[in-house]
Amino acid sequence: LFNSIMAYHRWFFSARDPDKEGCVSIIHPWESGRDNCPDWDLGLSNVEVPDELETYIRRDTTHVETDQRPTQQEYDKYMAIVHFGKKVGWDNDTIYREGPFLMADPGIQFILLRATKDLLQLAKHLKLEAAFDEIQQWIDKLTQGSQWLWNDIVGGFCARDIRTGKFSDGITNASMLCFYANVGNAEQQEKMRAHCERILDRCKYGFPSWDPDHESFNRIRYWRGPIWLVMNYMIFQGLSECGYRLLAEKIKSDTKKLVNKAGMAEYFDPIEGSPLGGTDFSWTAAIYLEMSSEKIHEILTNY
After folding, report:
1. CA distances to 101, 102, 132 from 91, in Å
2. Is the full-model pTM beyond 0.85?
3. Apex 239 CA angle, 153 and 102, nearest 5
4. Which of 13, 142, 214, 218 could disulfide-link 113, Cβ–Cβ 3.0 to 4.6 Å?
5. Among 17, 35, 161, 211, which one carries the catalytic annotation?
């Protein structure tokens, strides 16, 4: 599988960072996995819905309350971006240069950086020396590019519109993945630690997908506030590896409490801990099992 993984990484750098700036882009909020996070309000404000947009049927609102899902206006804009992609034959360069949406996402950036560091370890394990230099160059470039996401006003890593340079102005669970990638200098990591502590103090359960002190916070609407266990797992692992054990243990404890209280829900209310979205989600179950296992401590201790 190694060569296929290498090809996938090369795709990210050629299709999502063609100018080699070290900061990969997303061309649709769906690529981030955090579909309607307020991070994307900035980019979506420039997306125009064409008159010829084909009709579509939303399936998500047939089994989940509408106040827990993205709005219809947001969905129309999502589909407008898809409409553009289909119109240009999904040509990566055209979408990057001319597409209606182009933003940098801390989540994608930091997960890719972590994955690239892990890929280097895999290459060393397999003794594939020919790949060492290329992978190390990716790591160096992504580490350098991550600094473009540092928002001095907020004092944290934030999403950013690539074409305008404008920042999102909120701390998200994706911002906290800076620890998962071990990126940022000592001062930046300390500021991110302080944000983490502040946000956990504001919520009964952590970690919310959007800053509860921000006016756009919505505790039940998809990625505008609720907790997602798959994000908690990466935040927990990053905090543990960077030495912030108490914060990591708080997130692990909250994660287990949520499932014990509300079941294997898709996502959770950070204030009340109530279940949201779909039920009986397998990735919630997988994370719960992993974070309930003592094996994780051995892995982190020996990392």
Report:
1. 14, 14, 30
2. yes
3. 45
4. 142
5. 35
Q: What is residue 54's predicted lDDT score, i.e. its pLDDT?
A: 85
Question: Where is 245: in which H helix or E strand?
Answer: helix 245-262
pLDDT of residue 299: 57
Rounded Cα gap, residues 275 and 78, in angstroms: 26
What does pLDDT average to over the chain? 95
Q: What is the DSSP letter of 93?
A: H
CA-CA distance, 173 to 38, in Å (whole number)?
Answer: 12
User: What are the phi and psi torsion angles at 69 (to 5°)?
Assistant: -120, 170
Per residue in 89-147, pLDDT tens?
999 999 999 999 999 999 999 999 999 999 999 999 999 999 999 999 999 999 999 99
35 is catalytic: yes
The continuous run of DSSP H or E covering 189 comes out as helix 186-202
- Report the first-to-last Cα separation within the chain, whole angstroms: 23
Is beta strand 25-26 parallel, antiparallel or unpaired with respect to 103-104? Answer: antiparallel
Contact 41, 33 (CB under 8 A): no
pLDDT digits over 266-301, tens only? 999 999 999 999 999 999 999 999 988 866 556 556
Q: Under 8 Å CB-to-CB from 93, ≥6 apart: which residues?
A: 18
Catalytic residue among 39, 74, 266, 269: 266
Residues 6+ apart with CB under 8 A from 126: 2
* 16, HSE (Cβ side, Cα atoms, 13 Å): 24
What gap in Å lies between CA 246 and CA 251, rounded to an integer?
Answer: 9
Using CB atoms within 10 Å of the CB of residue 95, give its burial: 0 to 12 exposed, 13 to 18 middle, 19+ buried: buried
CA atoms within 13 A on the CB side of 200: 22
